[in-house]
Amino acid sequence: MASNDKEIVIDLVPFLRTYKNGTVERLISSPYLPPSPENNPTDGVCSKDITISPHVSARIYLPSQALTTTNKLPVLVYYHGGGFCLESAFCALFHSYVNSIVSKSQSIIAISVEYILAPENPLPAAYEDSWVALNWVTSHFDQETYPKNKDQWLLDFANFHKLYIGGDSAGGNIAHNMAIRAGIEKLKGGVKIHGAFLSHPHFWGSKAIRSEPSENRDASWLSRVWKVVYPDSPGGDDNPMMNPFVDGAPRIAGLGVRKLLVLVSSDNDEMFDRGVDYVEQVKNSGWGGDVELVEYKGDGHCFNLFNPDCDDSEDFISRLVYFIR
Ligand SMILES: *[C@@H]1O[C@H](CO)[C@@H](O)[C@H](O)[C@H]1NC(C)=O
Fold first, then answer.
1. What region holds the Alpha/beta hydrolase fold-3 domain (predicted)?
2. In the chain, what percentage of residues exceed pLDDT 70?
3. What is the mean pLDDT of residues 51-67?
4. What is the residue-averaged pLDDT of the chain?
């Protein structure tokens, strides 16, 4: 091994390090969990993995009881979190979470998208994958647009008049950007997104808002993450993908959804102020839909993932299931 192999090129501890030899060392990851294609009597959910395109895949979840009915179910396209550079739809953290949403509802079909990660594949690659996945799902609405690799669960059980998208943290950011794009471009099959949920959405910007610290913005954690995951970002931290309210960003009034649910935690989350601000700006934008802010105290960033059994997590899942019904 050459001595300079140990040289660190990117130091984004506690997320990751990259070395001069090209190795990316992810310091946070939950273990892979397989899907459960058979009816699982303890949670009443079946899941399976599917390939969407050469580098986009997903895990689909169906309430087992749906298999014995002809009812069509609301569809949730879910984007996992992890700062655009960590985790997976197939890992324990997100498998358990999406599984629990479907289990609790017994009436949602969910597609958890496996998009490509930075830094090996910098943004906007993950946004593109996320859009491809969403269009693949909606292409099941109309025989004319059926994909070659169509999925029987979507054909049999998806109600595309009730299409929802959502995500946690970076996934909440992705869901916002999909909603913006769906307001500009048509989704395959002509499907419209009914609602979106953004949990602890990952937004940032070069200038402090509300109670954010104004010192050393460039050295702030979220600014450092953004430079690693989107090194060529036009506008830097004020790229509209990260800061949706800068001049020149797509019109918020054009959000391609009818309703929004935004979850924030007021303590231990540097994304809190942006989440609250997001709701205020959306309300003032002239967008014609309904937006609801749900604020929890003392729980921290993405407590609903890391502490799924606490009262607030159960409360949030109930609200989410109600929102999607
Ligand atoms: C690259 O360097 C790191 C740190 O020294 C090492 O752990 C890793 O195994 C190396 N990878 C390859 C492919 O040589």
1. 76-303
2. 98
3. 95
4. 96
Best probe residue, ligand 1, of 1, 16, 18 (max atoms within 8 Å of C-beta) = 1
Kindly list the catalytic residues. Answer: 169, 267
- According to the model, what pLDDT value does residue 17 have? 96
Residue 106 lies inside a defined structural domain of this protein: yes
How far CA 252 is from CA of 3, 176, 184, 280, 294, in Å, comes to 51, 10, 11, 11, 20
167 CB neighbour count, 10 Å cutoff: 28
How many structural domains are present in the chain?
A: 2
pLDDT of residue 1 exceeding 60: no
pLDDT of residue 37: 85
Mean pLDDT over residues 190-200, rounded? 98
- Helix, strand, or coil (residue 93): helix
Its domain, for residue 12, covers 1-30
Taking the centre of ligand 1 as the mean of its atom positions, its distance from the CA of residue 193, in whole angstroms, is 44
Residues 2 and 67 in one domain: no
Do 61 and 153 share a domain, yes or no? yes
Contact 48, 35 (CB under 8 A): yes
To test the pocket of ligand 1, the residue of 23, 25, 120 to mutate (highest count of ligand atoms within 8 Å of its CB) is 23
pLDDT at 280: 98
Ligand 1, atom 3, lies closest to the CA of: 6
**Beta-carbon neighbour count of residue 89 at 10 Å?**
21
Q: Is the domain of 13 the same as that of 124?
A: no
The reply to whether 220 falls in a domain is: no
Q: What average pLDDT does range 217-228 have in this prediction?
A: 97
Contact present, 45 and 60 (Cβ < 8 Å): no
Ligand 1, residues at Cβ distance < 6 Å: 5-6, 19, 21, 23
Q: In terms of domains, do 110 and 176 share one?
A: yes
